[in-house]
Amino acid sequence: MTIRKRLSTKQRALEILVRLKRLYPDAACTLNYQTPVQLLVATILSAQCTDERVNKVTPALFKRFPDALSLATADLEELQALVRSTGFYRNKAKNIKAACSMIEEKFGGKLPKRMEELLELPGVARKTANVVLANAFGINMGVTVDTHVKRLSQRLGLTEQTDPVRIERDLMLLLPQPDWENWSIRLIYHGRAVCTARNPTCYDCKLSDLCPSAQLK
Fold first, then answer.
1. Does residue 55 contact residue 70 with C-beta atoms inside 8 Å?
2. Which terminus of the chain is less hemmed in, N or C, by CB atoms within 10 Å?
3. Binding of [4Fe-4S] cluster: at which residues (predicted)?
């Protein structure tokens, strides 16, 4: 009998968490930033774009527009040009400018630390808010669900949901709150290195005995 058949879903999730910590002990957010607002902007840019590409764009962007006030008053065409290579640049630039305007006008120039207030900002959904709260403020309000976390959580049999918000709810019930963000970061590392979208290397995966999908390979 495999380990996954002996353990409940919650027990498997906790064992996966332990192994991910061993596999990726130094895993951290891979976006480069110096302030909470810069992290917010970088996370908005990371939608349907790699962190590596975002990190190539943000040095020039933050040199020109380092804070919420400068971004709020930025020329939209110039902003679009600076973020163009991240894809969907028109919508991203519009949301960044609008979000920073709201930060200035409604929140006194400081990024709010409450989930409900962050969700008021244009271009900010739970994924972005979770990243910012956890990495900028050390507040774990939820589990960040990006494409890697969604794919791996489904493959590992930890959720049957397809909607990121429902996946997040399932994971929050399985994992300790202090580990919500480091779970996501480590799962993202594993998704990039081993459990890739098209050709997961199950034979070389340290989670395979806990994964129902691995038995199909």
1. no
2. N
3. 195, 202, 205, 211
Q: Which residue has the tokens 């630390």?
A: 113
DSSP annotation of 140 reads -
| Encoded amino acid at 46, one letter | S
Q: Which of 21, 51, 113, 146 is catalytic?
A: 146
Rounded-to-integer distance, Cα 27 and Cα 149, Å: 15
Rounded to whole angstroms, the Cα distance separating 94 from 158 reads 36
pLDDT tens, residue by residue, 83-92 = 999 999 999 9
Residues of each annotated binding site? 195, 202, 205, 211
The CA distance from 20 to 26, in Å, is 11
* Active-site residue, from 97, 127, 150, 179: 127
Q: What is the model's pLDDT at position 190?
A: 97
Binding residues for [4Fe-4S] cluster, by number, are 195, 202, 205, 211
- Amino acid of residue 6: R
Cβ atoms of 4 and 216 closer than 8 Å: no
Supply the pTM of this predicted model.
0.93
Run of H or E residues at 97 = helix 89-107
For residue 22, what are the contacts with CB-CB under 8 A and spacing of at least 6?
none
Is 127 a residue of the active site?
A: yes
